[in-house]
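FAQ: What does a ligand-bound record look like?

Like this one, built around fe (ii) ion:
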Amino acid sequence: MNNTIAQTISDSQIGQFNELAHKFNQFGLNLLVFDAQRRCVLQADAGKFQSDAARIAELIGQTSAADTENASAAWLSETLLICPVKVNQSVVAVMVVDTGSQSHEKTSQEKIYLACMVEDFNKNMATAQQVPRQIEKFSNELSRAYEEIVLLYNLSTNMQVTQSSASYLQMACDQLTQLVQVEGIAIFVEREIDGHKQIGLSAGSGVMAIDPVRADILQMYLAEELHAGKDALIDSTQDGPLKYQWPETVHNIIAVPLGNAEKMSGCLVATNALDKPDFDTTDIKLFNSVANQCMVFIENNRLFDELKELFIGCLRALTNSIDAKDQYTRGHSERVAFISRWIAEHLGRVRPVSEKLIHHVYLAGLLHDIGKIGIGEEVLRKNGRLTDAEYSVIQSHPRIGASILSGIHQMEDIVPGVLGHHERMDGKGYPQGLKGDEISLIARIVSLADAFDAMTSKRVYRNAMNIQKALDIIEDGIGTQFDEEIVRVFLDSDVQKLWHIIQDGFIENWDFSNIDEYGTQAVGELIR
Ligand SMILES: [Fe+2]
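The answer part, i.e. the structure of the complex:
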């Protein structure tokens, strides 16, 4: 005869109580279950006598809390065996076995046996309660581990040296904030500015109370922690006052190094965990993994920058050595590179011109006369009219230049610019006598840039030409020497400004970026 009212106890628990009740009922014993408010949630009578649930609830209420805290069975009276039921370390119900009048006939051994039965059941139920929780915990850990692996996979597969450090580090921050709930996250990286190391904010999101000045101090604290054998700096108000001094909005903080205690290039910092009171060892592992990936990227990026600088440095050394053969053409290659890039950028305003082409044009301009390395100084520096033989020697420089560069496979797109920079639209140029569109776009651009610089620079046989006169000659050369579209674009640009930039030796007060960067960007395009 069951009278079940499920209230605070789950259906599965009620089911388990019913099974136990069935066993007790077979021995003529009644089972009652009361919730934390002493309401009867199950009354299973064997049919031999009627339990007084209200009176039993009253008796339980009179029992001291200590009697129900230790979850062990105890005889409340001669006829009532009670046992508290614990879930998550707190008593949520009380089981009561009512033996009725039969208790008088029960020996003390039988009473002990009954108590053991109830306790065993209680323990089994507690264990059964833990299993789903353990499964849930394990499942959460597994899911977090999976997300961490995905994050690290994304960070490693997106590691392209051609990407800027700022965008990679920002991606790392964004991905990390999908896994950890924090108020603010930031990556600070050390940079060398004017020979001094300075720490700066490279990426981040949310509200970050740590500014670059504080980040400098934070790195000192972090180094202390690392030297003390820790893997990270963790400071929190959770277990007492903060160990270090932070802005007052910081309640907890985690910081891991980019690099190690001896060679720290920056740090990854997060403040104020939102979904838990403090950062923990799981966060330390995750943050360190992300910081390591960032460090690998920064190091690769640095090596790539060095490679680019080495490459452009070699190219400039080569062109400078050619220019040095003739004092009147000093700086000519750098200027032609700059003018060529100027034209290509302005051409991009009237038709599609890729960034890649602009870089190629710059390098073709820089290297256009590289073939002069094979021409004797007596011809290059000759003060007077060249003989036909000498002129044909000079005319060989585009071929020599193209031949030198064709040995470097990364230069294959530059070669046509070098080979064709003395071709003319009317086919009267050299070395191949190409006409119109047969001449590569790069060569047509470099040809104009070369002519403009040659006319406006002082030469061994004449003074620098007036800029307007040079522009008139260029306009007259449309269709014969020069490509019309390129000349129009050039004449429509602010040539006076261009000329001033060149004359000032590329001083940076003309609203354009550092000339050295043009070179490293351009060779970066070749190496990628
Ligand atoms: Fe040339």
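Follow-up question: can I read anything off the structure? Yes, for example: Residues 368-369, 397, 421-422, 450 surround fe (ii) ion (CB under 6 Å).
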